[in-house]
C-alpha cells in the first residue's frame, strides 16, 4: 500500500509538471502581447491629443466672443438673460482719462492779466490772497476706424468733472479724412497751438477756451487764441493738409463774439451782441527733424458783430480784430529723450479796435525742469472812464488810455513715476509777474503778483 501511494504521488507530480510546461507562453507569444499593448497605448494617446485640440479650439472661439458684463441685481437673473457688452464692429473704441488736482497759493486773485489762473471756472478776481484746492477729472471716449486705403473717420468726447460739483466738457469732435494727407474736423476742440508754454503748470494766460480771455481793467497777454476754438458759445470747422514736411490748416470758429470779454465789457463800456462772429485762422507749419516753425493769423470777418451806442445813439463797432503770430520750436528730446532740450520762441500781435497788443515769450525744458519768460505790451487808444472806476473798486490797474507792460517769469519741476507708477506725476509750479503802467493821464504805477502750485497728475 505504501508503495502504491508513493507511485501515485510521483505520477500526479509528473502530470502537473507536464501540464504547466504545456501552458508556459513562448518568447514569440510574449513579444506579440507586448506589441498589442503598445498599439493600445498609442491609440489612447492619439485620442487624448484629439480631445486637447478640441478644447483649445473651443477656448479660442470663446476668447473671440464679446466679454459678458456681470450685473448685480436684487432680482435673480437667469443665465439666458445676462447682458453683454458688444461693439458695433465699425472700429476701435478707447476709454481713458486723467486726474488733475491743484493746491494753489497766490498773492492776490486780482490778477495783473485778464486770465484766470485757476482751473475753477467759477472763481472771480478779488483783492485777497488765495489758498485753495481746485482741479478736474477728465474721462475720454475715442472711436476710430481705418480702411485699407488709408481713409479714416472717428470721434472724441471728453467730459470733465470739477471740484465745484459741476460737469463741463473739453472736446466733442467728429473727424474724417485720409491718413498723412487731408483731414476735416468739426465740433468743439482746439486748433494749432501758436504759443506753446512747454511744461507750464501755473501761468495759464492762454486759457483753455476762446471765452473769457479779456478782463477789462487788466492786461491782455495775447497768444493768438481768440479763434483757436473750444468755445462755450459756438463750434469749429477745420480743414488740414499734409504735404511732405509741410502742414496747412484753416480753422473757422463761429460763436457769440462778445463772450471773449468777461462780463461783456471792453474799454469801460458794456457790449451788445448783434450777430455772431466768424473767425478764420490759417496756419502754415514746417518741420524737419527736431526743428519746427509755424506762422498764422486770425481775423473776424463779420462787421458790426458787437459794439455799443454812444451818447448820441450812434452805433460804435468793436468787433474788428486781427491777429498774427510766429512760433519756432527745437525739440532735442526726439533724438535724446534723457538729456535733450525743448525750446519754444513765440510772438503774437493783435490789431483791434482802439487797442494794439504785442506778446513775446521764450521757454525751455531740460530733463524735468522748465523755465520761461513772457513779455506783453498793451497800447490802449480809447477808454471810457465815466463809470468804470466805480465798478473797478480801485483793484484794476488799466483805467486810462496809455501803454502798459507786463513781465512774467514762470518755472516748473516734474516728479515723475511717483511710487514707481509711470502714470502718476507731481508738478511744482511757480510764477512772478510785475507791471509798468504809463497812462496818458496821471502818474504811472507798478504792481506785482506771484504764486505757487502743487499739481497731482494721474493717467488711466
Radius of gyration: 38 Å
> What is the β-strand count?
21
Question: Which of globular, elongated, flat, extended, rod-shaped describes the shape?
Answer: elongated
The secondary structure category is mainly beta
| First-to-last CA distance | 107 Å
What is the mean predicted local confidence, pLDDT?
Answer: 84
Question: Residue share in helices?
Answer: 10-25%
| Strand fraction | over 45%
Task: Please count the helical segments.
Answer: 3
* Strand order, sheet with most strands: 1-2-3-4-5-6-7-11-12-15-16-17-18-19-20-21
Can you summarize the main beta sheet? 16 strands, antiparallel, barrel
Low-confidence stretches: 16-22, 114-125
The topology string of helices and strands comes to: HHEEEEEEEEEEEEEEEEEEHEEE
Keywords, please?
mainly beta, 3-stranded antiparallel β-sheet, 3 helices, 460 residues
Structure description:
The chain has 460 residues and is mainly beta. 14% of the residues lie in helices and 45% in strands. The chain is built from 3 helices and 21 strands. It has helices spanning 2-23, 27-64, 388-392; strands at 92-106, 130-146, 151-162, 167-178, 182-188, 235-243, 246-255, 265-266, 269-270, 272-273, 277-288, 291-300, 306-309, 315-317, 321-331, 341-352, 355-366, 369-380, 402-415, 424-439, 445-459. A 16-stranded antiparallel barrel has the order 1-2-3-4-5-6-7-11-12-15-16-17-18-19-20-21. Strands 10-13-14 form a 3-stranded antiparallel β-sheet, with no helix packed on it. Strand 4 (167-178) and strand 5 (182-188) form a beta hairpin. The longest helix is centred in the first third of the chain and has 38 residues, at 27-64. The relative contact order is 0.11. Mean pLDDT is 84; it is low at 16-22 and 114-125.
Amino acid at each position: 500500500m505504501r508503495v502504491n501511494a508513493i507511485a501515485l504521488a510521483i505520477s500526479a507530480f509528473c502530470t502537473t509538471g507536464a501540464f504547466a510546461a504545456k501552458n508556459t507562453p513562448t518568447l514569440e507569444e510574449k513579444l506579440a502581447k507586448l506589441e498589442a499593448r503598445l498599439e493600445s497605448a498609442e491609440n489612447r494617446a492619439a485620442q487624448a491629443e484629439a480631445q486637447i485640440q478640441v478644447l483649445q479650439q473651443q477656448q479660442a472661439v470663446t476668447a473671440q466672443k464679446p466679454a459678458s458684463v456681470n450685473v448685480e441685481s436684487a432680482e435673480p437673473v437667469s443665465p439666458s438673460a445676462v447682458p453683454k457688452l458688444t461693439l458695433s464692429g465699425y472700429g476701435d473704441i478707447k476709454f481713458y482719462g486723467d486726474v488733475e488736482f491743484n493746491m494753489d497759493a497766490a498773492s492776490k486773485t486780482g490778477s495783473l492779466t485778464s486770465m484766470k489762473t485757476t482751473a475753477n471756472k467759477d472763481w472771480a478776481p478779488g483783492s485777497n490772497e488765495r489758498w485753495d484746492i481746485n482741479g478736474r477729472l477728465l474721462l475720454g471716449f475715442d472711436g476710430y476706424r481705418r480702411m485699407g486705403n488709408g481713409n479714416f473717420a472717428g470721434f472724441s468726447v471728453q467730459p470733465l468733472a470739477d471740484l465745484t460739483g459741476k460737469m463741463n466738457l473739453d472736446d466733442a469732435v467728429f473727424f474724417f479724412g485720409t491718413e498723412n494727407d487731408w483731414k476735416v474736423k468739426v465740433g468743439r476742440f482746439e486748433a494749432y497751438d501758436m504759443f506753446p508754454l512747454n511744461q507750464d503748470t501755473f501761468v495759464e494766460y492762454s486759457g483753455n477756451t476762446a471765452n473769457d480771455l479779456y478782463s477789462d481793467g487788466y492786461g491782455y497777454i495775447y497768444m493768438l487764441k481768440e479763434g483757436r476754438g473750444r468755445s462755450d458759445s459756438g463750434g469749429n470747422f477745420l480743414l488740414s493738409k499734409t504735404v511732405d514736411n509741410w502742414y496747412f490748416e484753416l480753422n473757422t470758429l463761429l460763436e457769440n463774439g462778445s463772450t471773449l470779454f468777461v462780463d461783456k465789457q471792453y474799454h469801460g463800456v458794456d457790449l451788445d451782441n448783434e450777430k455772431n462772429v466768424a473767425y478764420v485762422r490759417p496756419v502754415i507749419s514746417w518741420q524737419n527733424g527736431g526743428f519746427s516753425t509755424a506762422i498764422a493769423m486770425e481775423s473776424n470777418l463779420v462787421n458790426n458783430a458787437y459794439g455799443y451806442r454812444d451818447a448820441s445813439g450812434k452805433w460804435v463797432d468793436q468787433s474788428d480784430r486781427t491777429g498774427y503770430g510766429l512760433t519756432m520750436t527745437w525739440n532735442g528730446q526726439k533724438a535724446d529723450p534723457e538729456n535733450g532740450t525743448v525750446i519754444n520762441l513765440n510772438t503774437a500781435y493783435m490789431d483791434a479796435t482802439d487797442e494794439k497788443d504785442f506778446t513775446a515769450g521764450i521757454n525751455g525744458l531740460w530733463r524735468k525742469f522748465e523755465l520761461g519768460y513772457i513779455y506783453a505790451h498793451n497800447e490802449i487808444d480809447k477808454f471810457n472812464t465815466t463809470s468804470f472806476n466805480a465798478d473797478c473798486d480801485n483793484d484794476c490797474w488799466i483805467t486810462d488810455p496809455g501803454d502798459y507792460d507786463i513781465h512774467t517769469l514762470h518755472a516748473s519741476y516734474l516728479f515723475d513715476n511717483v511710487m514707481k507708477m509711470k502714470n502718476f506725476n507731481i508738478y511744482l509750479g511757480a510764477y512772478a509777474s510785475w507791471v509798468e503802467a504809463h497812462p496818458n493821464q496821471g502818474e504811472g504805477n507798478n504792481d506785482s503778483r506771484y504764486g505757487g502750485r502743487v499739481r497731482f497728475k494721474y493717467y488711466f
